[in-house]
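Thread amino acids onto this structure.
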């Protein structure tokens, strides 16, 4: 049976370090699946300053109109460029996923669905979600996990959310994820003290840059903690959806 790949479209740039990991991850996974092969792929890279400025207010759908349109336009550009499947290489826009993909004809692979499926595959029954303030203060990621009978305790405080946001700004968005690893692990250990059996879901694609261990799979053990990398789970789901068997 011959294997090929549909052309993949990525909305990237938010942030750019994660986009690099997505491109590399898709190419490496494709090569492992089809020796010598690589997927046809296009990237629509957005300006993170613009997308941050366009973020709306929780509970006010109208305030997200510009944000939604920016990502929808990027997906439309990829569709017009011949992409047959698409994905957004960032978790936060998935808070607006159904609105963003409205009117897009090609399939758009959800990072939330990919993370939930990976958690179920690895029999994770309790998780702590870490990401941007939009992700951690929203209910959409947590509800998707709970709908699959995965416990998702509300133990992250406002101080934790701000500390993680500061860490993203200082280390991860500028592409210095390795420098932020120790501080991020410190936060994870502190949160895990009250829920030692819970895995940590890294629900921000830029966090992946601090963990080269994820080269071995989307679920890993580091310093006695179990981590699920939503970004790598997404990469695997994208390539699976793009694969054609003929």
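Threaded sequence (246 positions):
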């Amino acid at each position: 049976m011959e294997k090929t790949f549909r052309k993949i479209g990525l909305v990237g740039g938010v942030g750019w370090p994660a986009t690099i990991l997505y491109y590399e991850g898709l190419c490496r996974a494709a090569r492992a699946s089809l020796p010598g092969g690589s997927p046809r792929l296009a990237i629509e890279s957005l300006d993170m300053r613009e997308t941050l400025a366009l973020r709306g207010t929780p509970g006010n759908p109208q305030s997200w109109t510009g944000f939604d349109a920016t990502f929808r336009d990027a997906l439309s550009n990829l569709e017009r460029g011949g992409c047959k499947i698409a994905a957004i290489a960032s978790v936060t826009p998935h808070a607006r996923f159904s609105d963003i993909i409205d009117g897009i004809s090609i399939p758009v692979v959800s990072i939330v669905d990919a993370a939930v499926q990976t958690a179920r595959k690895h029999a994770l029954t309790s998780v702590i979600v870490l990401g941007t303030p939009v992700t951690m203060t929203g209910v959409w990621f947590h509800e998707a996990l709970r709908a699959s009978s995965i416990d998702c305790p509300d133990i992250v405080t406002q101080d934790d959310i701000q500390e993680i946001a500061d860490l993203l700004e200082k280390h991860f968005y500028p592409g210095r994820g390795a420098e932020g690893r120790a501080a991020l692990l410190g936060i994870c250990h502190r949160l895990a003290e009250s829920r030692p059996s819970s895995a940590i879901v890294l629900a921000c694609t830029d966090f992946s840059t601090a963990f080269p261990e994820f080269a071995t799979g989307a679920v890993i053990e580091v310093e006695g903690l179990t981590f699920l990398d939503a970004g790598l789970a997404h990469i695997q789901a994208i390539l699976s959806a793009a694969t054609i068997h003929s």
